[in-house]
Amino acid sequence: MAKAVIISAPSSASGKTVVTLGLLRALRNRGVRVASAKVGPDYIDPRFHEQATGRRCYNLDPWAMSPGQLRALLDDISQDSDLIIIEGVMGLFDGPHGASGSTADLGLALGLPVLLTIDARHQAQSVAALVHGFTRYRLGAQIAGVVLNRVASDRHEAILRSALGERVLATLRHDDSLVLPSRHLGLVQAAENQELEAFIERAASAVARETVLDRIIGIASQPTDESPKRCLLPPLGQRIAIARDLAFSFAYPHLLDAWQKAGSELTFFSPLADEAPAADTEAVFLPGGYPELHAGRLASCGTFREGLRRFDGLIYGECGGYMALGDALIDADGNRHAMAGLLPLVSNFQQRKLHLGYRQLLPKDSAAWTGPLRGHEFHYATVVSEGDGERLFDAEDAMGEPLPPMGLRRGKVMGSFAHVICEA
Question: Which residue out of 57, 231, 301, 319 is catalytically annotated?
Fold first, then answer.
């Protein structure tokens, strides 16, 4: 089992992703067989990790997954690896209200040390009180060191180091070139960033120059001994066609790998290239993504849309995939675009509203799953109409509070705004 360390922060936007990418590439350039993981349900950051390491990046979700499931995924990540860098989510102790699911929960469940990344732009001696508070706030949380990000000058660094002493493992200078572009669901996707490789190398150079890599390697530890338990989710069929391009890119690697380990054959097609799913498959999976950014193009892809309409097997769409199965999608400029027309749904991005949170899901006579599931919802679409059709899920939030039923099902076509993570 490879040793692991968690990169966290007091809050979002502290620079965790840049520090993580820099560490991953700097260690790889040094010859360390480094792998990575991302805490929580995020789809976007793991693709950046994969660019930095050349290895598959899994999500580790302490709300949706048991310690045994987390350990099983770490076992998979450990294959041919010396070290695992795990990027946290939000602030160290932030998670679903009233429920476990924070980066600290993951660290405690697996007994892993944490490096705290601090945005030092507006910090001086008071940074010591911040670190002291985070260190003492929760018994058992192992804050093993501090990375000071966006340090302004030599004098600024000296002030910070005098306040924190040996806890400082790295000081990264403020650099406008080390900023990744964002959009409404997070960072702009890795596949869209033509300068990503150069960015990662710049981050690696900064980290290698300013970090004692040997100390970070030495801080990492092996996860606590926990009996592995696979994240099981029955596959949609023996042969599954999966949409994959810039409009449909939000598919969890652990989910696809689990389907393959269960014996399913996976093929991929691009709706944006006007490709239809292979006719000899049993099921089609349309993951989430950014169909709202490509709605006009999708509306013109007749081969893709007609291929879905003629398909006789199970069709399942999540979030963006769910919207693509609907009658129409209204983009941010108010333009209405025809979608596949397989579910009575019209979604709207001109009238934006944030929908965010973990979801406990119970399928209602689903053609795919029978047992309870855990998932996540994150989108800005509003629903203009959801017409006749059976609801797909009964739903609750992370604390078990009832929510309105989610999704629609018509025969073998089904979908919802929830991204399924694993079986409950």
Answer: 319
Write the pLDDT tens digit of every residue in 234-256. 899 999 999 999 999 999 999 99
Cα distance between residue 386 and residue 241, in whole Å: 26
Select from 2.60.40.10, 2.60.40.1930, 3.30.230.10, 3.40.50.880 the CATH code of 239-423.
Answer: 3.40.50.880
CA 116, CA 142: separation in Å to the nearest integer? 10
Of 64, 54, 126, 120, nearest in space to 95 by CA: 64
Contact call for residues 127 and 121 (beta carbons, < 8 A): no
Segment 215-235, tens digit of pLDDT: 999 999 999 887 888 777 889
Quick: pLDDT tens for 309-335: 999 999 999 999 999 999 999 999 999
Question: In this structure, which topology does domain 3-219 adopt according to CATH?
Answer: Rossmann fold (3.40.50)
57 as an active site residue: the answer is no
Instruction: Answer whether 253's CB lies under 8 Å from 57's CB.
Output: yes
